[in-house]
Specification:
Blueprint lengths: L2 H14 L16 E8 L5 H5 L7 E6 L4 E7 H11 L5 E6 L2 E3 L13 H5 L2 H5 L10 E5 L17 E2 L12 H11 L17 E5 L7 E3 H13 L4 E7 L4 H12 L3 E5 L16 E6 L17 E4 L3 E4 L12 E4 L2 H18 L5 H10 L20 H9 L12 E6 L5 E2 L2 E9 L4 E8 L2 E6 L4 E6 L6 E11 L4 E3 L3 E5 L10 E6 L5 E2 L2 E9 L4 E8 L2 E6 L4 E6 L6 E11 L4 E10 L5
Parallel strand pairs: 6-8, 6-10, 7-8, 10-11, 11-12, 12-13, 17-24, 26-32
Antiparallel strand pairs: 1-3, 1-4, 2-3, 5-9, 14-15, 16-18, 18-21, 19-20, 19-22, 22-23, 22-24, 25-27, 27-30, 28-29, 28-31, 31-32
Helix pairs in contact: 6-9, 7-8, 9-11
Length: 591
């Protein structure tokens, strides 16, 4: 266990009992369990992380790809821990594992069947590409009906983020409806058509059983699973506005070559959230190309797509027969899979495109609605499948990225002397994107950081004093690597040898005669400071003084008349001791 980490967590534990409760919801029962997402800085030991249990926290799960721990405890404990860890040097970030609602709203049965396919000119786009089976679309939702005739031959083996099983069967209709919108079997004389004719679906169930919500952690687990399975598009029809853990999972997905597309939400109002560079957020339009009254909007919106009265699938268990397993749905939940389906067609047409290039194609070919250029309602416009695929068809294969990142260690300085725990800071940038930064200590890999700012926690007390070399390696998403400057630092945790204190008894004078009550005064000096001075009479400790002037008032009547020995001992802050003694003659007999 690292000494400085033990001290840090011990301080947290001690403060918990004194800090006032920072209640998120005053009516919440303090015994109720809730969850936090905690990410430690690279370099923090596993033993320290496990000490979370001593703080009253239970480690429920971990997302190892982004090094995030899911912990639970009472609301009281979590509120206090969150407040303290936000300023803790070993913590990268802490956030509530928020519940995220679905974006479905009541259906509008007056819209024509699948009007959205004509609106975005999908039939013309299909002349260029109907999709490719090896370009997979991950649908992160409430699970999918595996027996629906318009889906069953398009589904890969699924994943359940709630219980880590392969059972992604739907328990709410929402996931099946979203999957049908993005990639139902098309041109089979049955049911509906979908944008991505031939693309396969990776079903990922991210809601607790039967519940119409998900959490940051479940979505993050689903995203990293989809990325590791090679999915090129992630369709998230949930009302997500923020979340550091979710953004890191989206970056992980993007770094592996995929594009994350999510719903703007159905609050019907302005939402003041900044744009997430790793998530393409979609608002909803109607048949007349106006934003719907219920669609959320704000500076985080990137694109818009049809989302009102979308005719799609209903699970078989909600229909009388499969002849009727179809219906109308509305919400940004359904504008999202329409964009996801088009993104899959773009990747299918040119699989060498990067996620950023696909995003730019979607934006540059969109129909500009609202104010000229970007606006908070439509983003860069309503998508147009025909223009997007025609641009891709005329787009040459992008040149291979051979430019390595820029990387430099900015703290500590070269030839610095360091002690205790320090943060090693690395600056890294790239013409496309940095995927990870590694820190090496004496040519051995010390820790890895996947997200900017790139900061590494180093407890130098775990290493012997001496010279150490540090350098960093930065990798981009194309596998290019660059090595930083090498710096040399001196670790100095062992105190240098310090001379013992000096001490003198100023009064009384050695050999003098004393009577009644007198002051014994001592002067003491130590290089590391004086911690205390002890006063002895005939080797018996009578008093201790910790502040100057070091004085003890002695009643000489407490001893017999005659020669007595006064001893003073001084201790410095390192525990070194020095002493001195004098003799005085005590005379209290009546004359």
């Amino acid at each position: 266990m690292k000494k400085s980490e033990i001290i840090t967590l011990t301080l947290i534990l001690a403060i918990i009992t004194t800090i006032p409760i920072l209640s998120i919801n005053p009516t919440f029962e303090t015994a109720t369990k809730t969850e936090l997402l905690i990410k430690f800085k690279p370099g923090v030991s596993e033993k320290t992380i496990k000490m979370l249990t001593s703080l009253g926290l239970e480690i429920r799960d971990k997302i190892p790809q982004i090094n995030v721990f899911i912990v639970s405890a009472t609301q009281k404990t979590l509120n206090q821990i969150m407040s303290l860890t936000l300023q803790n040097p070993i913590i990268d970030h802490v956030e509530d594992d928020m519940e995220i609602p679905l974006t479905e709203i009541p259906n509008d049965k007056y819209y024509e069947l699948q009007w959205h396919l004509q609106k975005i000119q999908t039939p013309d786009a299909w002349n260029i590409s109907k999709g490719e089976p090896n370009i997979t679309i991950a649908v992160l939702d409430t699970g999918i009906d595996p027996n629906h005739p318009d889906l069953k031959d398009k589904l890969l083996e699924g994943y359940n983020a709630y219980d880590d099983s392969k059972n992604a069967t739907g328990d709410l209709a929402h996931g099946t409806a979203v999957a049908g919108t993005v990639a139902a079997i098309t041109n089979n004389t049955l049911g509906i058509s979908a944008i991505a004719w031939k693309n396969m679906i990776l079903p990922i169930k991210v809601n607790p059983p039967g519940q119409g919500y998900t959490t940051f952690s479940l979505l993050a687990k689903g995203l990293v699973y989809a990325a590791d399975k090679g999915a090129k598009v992630a369709c998230i029809s949930w009302q997500i506005f923020n979340g550091t853990t979710l953004a890191e999972a989206a970056k992980y997905f993007t770094d592996k070559g995929g594009l994350v597309i999510a719903a703007a939400g159905n609050t019907g109002k302005y939402e003041n959230y900044m744009d997430n560079p790793y998530i393409l957020t979609v608002s909803a339009t109607n048949k007349t190309d106006y934003i719907t009254t219920w669609s959320s909007y704000g500076p985080y919106v990137d694109l818009s797509a049809p989302g009102a009265g979308i005719f799609t699938l209903i699970p078989g268990w909600q229909a009388t027969s499969y002849d009727y397993a179809y219906g109308y749905w509305s919400g940004t939940s359904f504008s999202t899979p329409i964009v996801a389906g088009l993104a899959a067609l773009i990747f299918s047409t040119n699989p060498n495109l990067t996620p950023k290039q696909v995003e730019q194609i979607l934006k540059s070919t969109a129909v500009d609605l609202g104010s000229p250029g970007y606006d908070i309602y439509y983003g860069w416009g309503r998508i147009n499948a025909s223009k997007a695929l025609r641009m891709v068809a005329g787009t040459p294969t992008p040149p291979q990225d051979t430019t390595p990142p820029n990387v430099a260690i900015t703290h500590p300085n070269d030839e610095a002397t360091v002690s205790r725990s320090i943060t090693v800071t690395v600056n890294a940038s790239d013409n496309v994107a940095v995927s990870k930064v590694e820190l090496y200590k004496n040519d051995v890999l010390f820790a890895v950081d996947f997200d900017a700012p790139y900061e590494f926690y180093w407890d130098t007390t775990c290493d012997p004093d001496g010279q150490y070399t540090l350098y960093a390696k930065a990798y981009d998403t194309s596998g290019n690597v660059a090595t930083s400057n090498t710096i040399t630092v001196k670790v100095a945790n062992t105190p240098k040898e310090v001379n013992p204190p000096t001490i003198n008894i100023i009064q009384p004078i050695n050999g003098s005669t004393v009577s009644k009550i007198i002051d014994i005064t001592v002067s003491a000096y130590g290089e590391s400071g004086i911690s205390k001075v002890e006063f002895y009479i005939n080797d018996k400790l009578l008093a201790t003084d910790t502040t100057e002037p070091y004085t003890y008032r002695w009643n000489t009547r407490s001893v017999k008349d005659g020669w007595q020995t006064i001893t003073a001992k001084a201790y410095d802050s390192l525990g070194n001791m020095a002493q001195t003694s004098i003799k005085v003659y005590v005379s209290n007999k009546k004359q």
